[in-house]
Write a structure and sequence with these properties.
This protein is mainly alpha-helical and about 60 residues long. The protein contains 1 helix and no strands. The protein starts with a helix and ends with a helix. About 0% of the residues are buried.
């Protein structure tokens, strides 16, 4: 039983750094994707505002 627990801890100690890096990669990738989504939404809002301003300018300059 003692040998099994010792081997189990050694396996866990060997896998822990890889699991930590995988978790870190997942967190970073998640933040990159969420940031891209927010940036695209902000760009859509800005473009909609610009289109509205152009339509307002065209309407006001019409005779």
């Amino acid at each position: 039983m003692t040998g099994f627990l010792q081997d189990g801890w050694m396996v866990l100690a060997a896998l822990l750094p890889s699991m930590g890096l995988l978790f870190l990669f997942w967190v970073i990738l998640k933040h990159v994707i969420e940031g891209d989504r927010r940036e695209r939404a902000a760009l859509r809002r800005w473009e909609a505002e610009q289109d509205a301003k152009e339509r307002a300018a065209d309407d006001s300059s019409a005779p």
